[in-house]
Design brief:
Elements: H1 3-13, H2 17-28, H3 33-39, H4 41-44, H5 49-78, H6 84-92, H7 96-103, H8 113-119, H9 123-131, H10 138-143, H11 155-172, H12 174-187, E1 189-194, E2 210-214, H13 220-231, E3 235-240, H14 243-254, H15 260-309, E4 319-323, E5 330-335, E6 341-347, H16 354-370, E7 375-379, H17 384-393, E8 400-403, H18 408-412, H19 415-420, H20 426-439, H21 441-445, H22 464-482, E9 484-485, H23 491-494, H24 502-515, H25 532-538, E10 542-543, H26 561-570, H27 575-580, H28 582-586, H29 600-611, E11 641-650, E12 653-657, E13 664-667, E14 688-697, E15 702-706, H30 744-759
Parallel strand pairs: 4-7, 7-8, 9-10, 13-15
Antiparallel strand pairs: 1-2, 1-3, 4-5, 5-6, 11-12, 11-14, 12-13, 14-15
Helix pairs in contact: 1-2, 1-5, 2-5, 8-11, 9-11, 9-15, 11-15, 12-14, 12-15, 13-15, 14-15, 15-22, 16-30
Length: 760
C-alpha cells in the first residue's frame, strides 16, 4: 500500500488512516463495497457505503496518477531530460493537472512557429530579449540573425520569431498556467450565442440564444443544455475571463525590466495568451466544467434511481396486470404469487360498442375469480386512465394500482424477456413486467439497463463510463441492502449480489433447476465455480425462508452462526427461541462475545437481525389513486389541487405524474415556501405529493405545478389569469368527456356484469 496515498485520502475524507488502510486491504483481497460496509465494521471503523465507495474512487484516481507519473518519468529518461530536480517535481505532483503543467515544456511537440524559429537559429535572440537588459537594442541584435538561407528575411522577421519562442515559454510556464486557471475559475464567463443561420431550427435552445453566466455558478443542467446545443450545431459557446484582468496578471510574471527588450517580451506575452495560453486554458475549463456537470447529473440520476429501486413492493400476491391500449385493446396477464405467468388475454374496455364493453367486463371478472386475483396493476401509458375508470366501475374489493411502465417496452424486446417467454409476443412480456413491478419493483427493474428507466437528466450527454459505474453501484447497493431470496430470484437479480456476477448467477439458477430449491446457504458451495471467497462475499445477502438453519432467512452472516449458537447455549435455549422471544434477547450481554475480530458494531447488527430477521428496509406499500375525472390535459384548470407521484427529480425541479399522460413540472422555486437549492431536499422519486396546477400550455404540452401553500397562478390556455377556485370537471364517467354524465348503457352493462359475478 502507498503510505502517502493512505494519508492523503484520510486527510481528504477526514477519517483515520487506519480506516483507509483497512478498507484498501479489503479491496485488494477482492471484497465488495456492500460486504465491507455491512460485515467488516470492526476493520473500517463502521464506515458506511458512501465512505467506502469514496475510498475506492480515490484509490483508483491516485493509481491513475501514479501510472501517469511513471509514463512521464520513463519518457523524460529515454530522451535524457530527467534531472534530479525534475524527477522530484514530477513525484511531488498531487494532481494530473499539476503533473501535466510540469511536463508540458518537455512534452514532444508538433512543429510549431516556435519550433521553426528555433530551426532558424533565433533562440539566442529570444534569450537575449527575455533577459530584458535596459541597454539591449532589439533592432541591432536582431540584425545579426537575418539570413535568407535560414528563411529570416529581415529584422522584423527575426524579432517575430524570437517572440514566438518567448510566447511558447509563456504558454509552457506552470506558474502562469496555474494563475490563469484560477482567474478563469473565479472570473470566467460562460457565453452562448445562436448560429446566425439556424435561428428557426434552434428553437428548442431559445433560452440560450444570447446567454452569459459566471462559470463558477452555472448549474449542471444549464451547462449540459448549452453543450448539447453546440454539439447539434445550433449554438456557439465560449468560456473567457474579462480581457482587462488577464494581462495585468500575466505580464508581471515575465516583463521584469524596462526598455525596448522588455517591450518585445510584453508583445510576446500578449501573443502567447491570445494565440496559445488562453485557448489552452479555455479547452481545459471546458473539459473540467463538463466533468463537474457530468458528476452532478450522474449524482441526480443515481439518487433518483435509488428511490425508484427501493419503491414499496406489494409483495407476493396474485396479480392481474393490464397493459392498456385503445385500438389494439388491453393486454391482460394473470400472475401467481411468484410472478409466474398463468394466463393472458385481450379485452376492449374503451370500445364504442356496448357489447365489447360488456364482454370486457365479464372476461375481467372471470379472470379475477378463476385466478384468485389479489391486486390489479395498470400500466400508466396510453389509455391508462380510461382503463382505470373501467376497472373501478366494476367495484372489485381489490387494490387497483397505476404502475409506471417506463422501460417496459425495452424489457419486452430484450434478450432477457425472450429467454423468459420465448413463445409470447412483446405485448404479453410488457404486461408481465408491469405486474411484476407492482409485486417487487427492484427484482423487475434490475433486468433493465438503468439508463433506460428515464429518471435522469441529460444522461446521454454525460460520461457514459462514469454513469454506468455509478448506476451499477446504486443497483448493487439496493439489491444487497434489501437481500435476495435465493430460491426464487432471477439470474439478473442474483448477478448484482456481492461476489457473484452474471456467470455465477447463471450457475446458481442452473443448479437450482437441476437439484431443486436450496435447503441451506451452505449448499451454495456445491454450485460449480462458486468458491470460498464468493461464498464469503455473497452468503449474508442471500435469504432462505425455510432454510435448515433459522438464520438462513436473516442478514446474519454464516461466519457468525457459531457465535449466535453460543448465545443460545448460554441462555439454555435454541436459536429459534432467540428469534421468537424478545425477553431472551434482552438477556444477551454483548460485551461477553467481543473477540479480536468481532466487536460491538457487528454484535449490535446481529441482535437487530434476531429481532427482525430478514426484514425488508423498504417502506410499507400503500395504494395510490389519481383524481377521478381528471384524465387528460384538457381537464386541467389552474388552481386545481391534485394528487401525484414524483417521476423524476432534476437540478431545476421535479416532474410529477398527475394522471393526464403528461408529467407536470414543479420548478425548484415552487417546491417549498422556504428557499431551497436542491430539489431533493423536498421530494424524492416515487414520493406521493399534492400539487396545485398553476399553468397549462396545451400547444406545447406543458404543465406547471406548485407545492407552495399559496402558489401564484399563471395565465390559463386563453391567456387569462384564472381563479384558484376554478371547479374541477364534473362527471368523469366511463368513456365520456369531462363534464358529461356517464353513458347509461355502459353503466347498465357494468351493473349487469357485477350482478352476474355476485350470483356465481
Amino acid at each position: 500500500m502507498n503510505e502517502a496515498h493512505i494519508l492523503k485520502i484520510a486527510g481528504e475524507l477526514k477519517i483515520q488512516p487506519r480506516q483507509v488502510l483497512s478498507t484498501a486491504r479489503l479491496f485488494a483481497e477482492g471484497a465488495t463495497v456492500p460486504f465491507i460496509a455491512r460485515y467488516r465494521k470492526e476493520a473500517t471503523g463502521s464506515l458506511d457505503e458512501v465512505a467506502v465507495t469514496n475510498i475506492r474512487e480515490r484509490l483508483l484516481g491516485l493509481a491513475d496518477l501514479d501510472s501517469r507519473q511513471e509514463t512521464i518519468l520513463k519518457s523524460l529518461a529515454e530522451r535524457n531530460l530527467l534531472s534530479d530536480e525534475l524527477k522530484a517535481a514530477v513525484n511531488k505532483a498531487e494532481s494530473v493537472t499539476q503533473l501535466e503543467d510540469i511536463y508540458l515544456p518537455y512534452r514532444p511537440k508538433r512543429r510549431t512557429r516556435a519550433t521553426i524559429a528555433r530551426e532558424q537559429g533565433l533562440e539566442p535572440l529570444a534569450d537575449l530579449l527575455f533577459g530584458q537588459q535596459s541597454t539591449a537594442d532589439p533592432l541591432a541584435e536582431a540584425a545579426r540573425f537575418v539570413s535568407t538561407e535560414k528563411g529570416v528575411a529581415d529584422v522584423a522577421a527575426a524579432l517575430a520569431g524570437a517572440r514566438d519562442i518567448i510566447a511558447e515559454r509563456v504558454n509552457d510556464d506552470a506558474t502562469a498556467r496555474a494563475k490563469l486557471r484560477d482567474l478563469f475559475w473565479s472570473e470566467g464567463i460562460v457565453k452562448s450565442k445562436v448560429m446566425s443561420d439556424k435561428v428557426e431550427a434552434a428553437a428548442k435552445f431559445k433560452d440560450y440564444f444570447d446567454w452569459s453566466e459566471p462559470v463558477a455558478k452555472i448549474p449542471s443542467h444549464r451547462l449540459l443544455a448549452i453543450r448539447r446545443g453546440e454539439t447539434e450545431g445550433f449554438l456557439m459557446m465560449r468560456i473567457t475571463p474579462p480581457e482587462e484582468s488577464v494581462l495585468p496578471l500575466l505580464e508581471p510574471l515575465f516583463v521584469t525590466g524596462k526598455g525596448p527588450a522588455a517591450e518585445q517580451v510584453r508583445l510576446a506575452v500578449q501573443d502567447g495568451y491570445k494565440r496559445l495560453l488562453g485557448s489552452a486554458i479555455e479547452v481545459e475549463l471546458r473539459m473540467e466544467t463538463k466533468k463537474r456537470a457530468d458528476a452532478e447529473a450522474i449524482r441526480v440520476f443515481a439518487d433518483n434511481l435509488r428511490e425508484l429501486l427501493l419503491a414499496s413492493p406489494l409483495g407476493s400476491k396474485n396479480v392481474l396486470a393490464i397493459d392498456p391500449g385503445f385500438r389494439t385493446g388491453c393486454k391482460i396477464v394473470c400472475l401467481d404469487r411468484q410472478g409466474k405467468l398463468l394466463h393472458n388475454d385481450v379485452i376492449y374496455p374503451t370500445a364504442s360498442s356496448a357489447g365489447e364493453i360488456r364482454d370486457a367486463a365479464a372476461a375481467l371478472l372471470s379472470m379475477v375469480k378463476k385466478y384468485q386475483i389479489e391486486a390489479i396493476a395498470i400500466g400508466n401509458g396510453t389509455a391508462s386512465r380510461e382503463t382505470e375508470t373501467f376497472v373501478k366501475l366494476l367495484k372489485l374489493p381489490l387494490p387497483i394500482v397505476m404502475v409506471n411502465e417506463s422501460g417496459a417496452s425495452i424489457y419486452s424486446a430484450s434478450e432477457v424477456a425472450r429467454e423468459e417467454f420465448p413463445t409470447q409476443d412483446l405485448t404479453v412480456r410488457g404486461a408481465v413486467s408491469i405486474g411484476r413491478r407492482l409485486m417487487d419493483p427492484l427484482a423487475e427493474l434490475v433486468k433493465l439497463d438503468p439508463k433506460s428507466i428515464g429518471v435522469g437528466q441529460y444522461q446521454h450527454d454525460v460520461d457514459q463510463t462514469a454513469l454506468k459505474r455509478t448506476l451499477d453501484d446504486v443497483v448493487i447497493s439496493c439489491v444487497n441492502g434489501v437481500g435476495v431470496e435465493l430460491n426464487t430470484a432471477s439470474k439478473q437479480l442474483l448477478a448484482y449480489v456481492s461476489g457473484l456476477g452474471p456467470a455465477l448467477a447463471a450457475n446458481i439458477v442452473s443448479y437450482r433447476n437441476e437439484h431443486g430449491p436450496f435447503k441451506s446457504r451452505a449448499e451454495l458451495k456445491k454450485v460449480p465455480r462458486l468458491g470460498d471467497k464468493a461464498f464469503e462475499q455473497a452468503a449474508g445477502f442471500l435469504r432462505l425462508r425455510d432454510g435448515e438453519h433459522p438464520l438462513d432467512a436473516s442478514a446474519v452472516h454464516p461466519e457468525s452462526y457459531t457465535l449466535v449458537d453460543r448465545m443460545a447455549k448460554d441462555l439454555q435455549c435454541s436459536v429459534g427461541d432467540l428469534l421468537r422471544d424478545a425477553g431472551l434477547r434482552q438477556k444477551i450481554q454483548l460485551p461477553k462475545y467481543v473477540t479480536e475480530t468481532v466487536g460491538l458494531p457487528t454484535l449490535t447488527d446481529i441482535l437487530g437481525e434476531l429481532a427482525k430477521p430478514g426484514r425488508d428496509p423498504r417502506q410499507k406499500f400503500e395504494v395510490f389513486s389519481f383524481q377521478s375525472g381528471v384524465e387528460k390535459m384538457e381537464d386541467l384548470k389552474p388552481g386545481m389541487k391534485l394528487p401525484g407521484i414524483v417521476t423524476n427529480v432534476t437540478a431545476f425541479g421535479a416532474f410529477v405524474d398527475i394522471g393526464v399522460h403528461q408529467d407536470g413540472l414543479i420548478h425548484v422555486s415552487q417546491l417549498s415556501d422556504r428557499f431551497i437549492k436542491d430539489p431533493s431536499e423536498v421530494v424524492k422519486v416515487s414520493q406521493r405529493v399534492t400539487v396545485t396546477v398553476t399553468e397549462v400550455d396545451l400547444p406545447r404540452k406543458r404543465i406547471a405545478l406548485s407545492m407552495k401553500a399559496a402558489p401564484v397562478l399563471g395565465p390559463g390556455p386563453a391567456g387569462q389569469r384564472t381563479s384558484p377556485s376554478a371547479p374541477r370537471p364534473a362527471g368523469g364517467g366511463f368513456n365520456n368527456r369531462p363534464g358529461q354524465p356517464a353513458k347509461p348503457q355502459a353503466v347498465d352493462w357494468f351493473t349487469a356484469a357485477l350482478n352476474k359475478n355476485k350470483g356465481n
